[in-house]
C-alpha cells in the first residue's frame, strides 16, 4: 500500500512546488517508520533492507 501511494505521488504532474530531491528525502522517514522497531538492546533496530535507485538527467540533476 505504501509503495502504491509513493508511485501515485511520483506519477502526478503537480508536485506542489517540491523538487524530486525533496520528495526523495521526505519519503525516507516514512519508510524508516515502517521498518524500525524498539528492542531490548536497541531503540531503533532496523528490520528491513532498503534499496534506493536515483536517476540523473544529462545535466546531473535528479530526475527520478
TrEMBL record:
Q: Which domain of life is it from?
A: Eukaryota
Tell me the protein family, please.
Belongs to the TRAFAC class myosin-kinesin ATPase superfamily. Myosin family.
**Gene Ontology MF annotations:** actin filament binding; ATP binding; microfilament motor activity
| Cited Gene3D superfamilies | Kinesin motor domain
Q: Which Pfam families match?
A: Myosin_head
The entry's keywords: Actin-binding, ATP-binding, Motor protein, Myosin, Nucleotide-binding
Keyword RNA-binding attached: no
An annotated GO cellular component of this protein is: cytoplasm
Q: What is this protein called?
A: Myosin-9-like isoform X2
| Residue ranges of domain Myosin motor in the record | 1-64
Q: Which GO terms describe its biological process?
A: actin filament organization
Amino acid at each position: 500500500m505504501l509503495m502504491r501511494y509513493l508511485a501515485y505521488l511520483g506519477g502526478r504532474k503537480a508536485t506542489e512546488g517540491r523538487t524530486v530531491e525533496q520528495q526523495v528525502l521526505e519519503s525516507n522517514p516514512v519508510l524508516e517508520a515502517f521498518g524500525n522497531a524498539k528492542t531490548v538492546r536497541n531503540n531503533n533496530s532496523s528490520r528491513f533492507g532498503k534499496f534506493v535507485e536515483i536517476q540523473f538527467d544529462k545535466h546531473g540533476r535528479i530526475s527520478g
